[in-house]
């Protein structure tokens, strides 16, 4: 699965879990639908805005995207933690 498709799924899941309609995320419901269906890739600024409306960190949306295909959260967090320490 492409990352933009996985991101769309993660966005939709987060939105539904928060009990929000697509219209609550952005002025254009059509835009949110395009992102959620993997047809559009939001900019970094737009991802930050979407995450803010959802009340979560943008990295949470990305992490969730990598878990859509059944990835393991513990393994992902260990890898990211290790890589962040290596980059310091």
Automatic annotation (TrEMBL):
One Pfam family this sequence matches: HTH_31
InterPro entries: Cro/C1-type_HTH, Lambda_DNA-bd_dom_sf
PROSITE patterns assigned: HTH_CROC1
Annotated CDD domains: HTH_XRE
GO molecular function: DNA binding
Limits of the HTH cro/C1-type domain: 11-61
Designated name of the protein: Helix-turn-helix domain-containing protein
Organism: Pseudomonas arsenicoxydans
